[in-house]
Amino acid sequence: MNRAELYLSFAAIFHRPHQDVAEHLEELVDLWREEIPESTAYAAEIGDFCRKYPGVKERLDVLWEHYIPLFEAGAIEAIPYASVHFQGQVLGQEAEEVRKFYLSCGYDIGIDKGELPDHLAVELEFLALLAREQKTKELAEFGKKHLRPFLKKLLPLIYKSNRMVYSSAAKILELWQSNLDRKGD
């Protein structure tokens, strides 16, 4: 299994929608079906979405239509920042602890570039880097200390939202992380 590729695939979905994801959504579905066999039903839901919206622009528009109320505006359904779930505020203590963990592994994140360290997609990208560099100790530590507790709070909110693509992707990510927990990874 290519763990780095899986982390990157989930990071791509949970970042703000962009053309690359809209163009390659079927490839993500294929990867998840192959690497996470229990995901078949949820991957099929995303496959249905792809068939319903075959054009990249239309697909991207629909992704935005679901992403904004889910993660960004109005009565946000699932705030994608860990600090909000643990301290009730953006850039809380959890964000600082995550940032320090990045630094301890030799990475820095520029908040000035609009990236906050405890955003779901940023954490997933970080884990992809660790997996790619085979930093298994750091990967396990970050997963246990930061990512998994965050996912336990966030993924049910995303899944419950019933938002196209996102709720299915959240369930697939949850299945994969459960598999890793069972294996002791």
What do these coordinates show?
The protein has 185 residues and is an all-alpha fold. It has helices at residues 3-14, 19-35, 40-52, 56-72, 82-87, 93-104, 120-132, 136-161, 166-183. The mean pLDDT is 92. Helix 1 (3-14) runs antiparallel to helix 7 (120-132), helix 3 (40-52) runs antiparallel to helix 9 (166-183) and helix 8 (136-161) packs antiparallel against helix 9. The longest helix has 26 residues, at 136-161.
Q: Tell me what portion of residues adopts beta-strand conformation.
A: under 5%
Shape type: globular
Number of strands: 0
Helix and strand element order: HHHHHHHHH
User: How large is the radius of gyration?
Assistant: 16 Å
Terminal-residue CA separation: 13 Å
Helicity level, as a percent range?
over 70%
Counting H and I runs of at least 4 residues, what is the number of helices?
A: 9
Q: Which regions are unreliable across 5 or more consecutive residues at pLDDT < 50?
A: none
Structural class: mainly alpha
Mean pLDDT: 92
Biggest sheet details: none
Give descriptors for this structure.
single chain, 185 residues, mainly alpha, 72% helix, globular
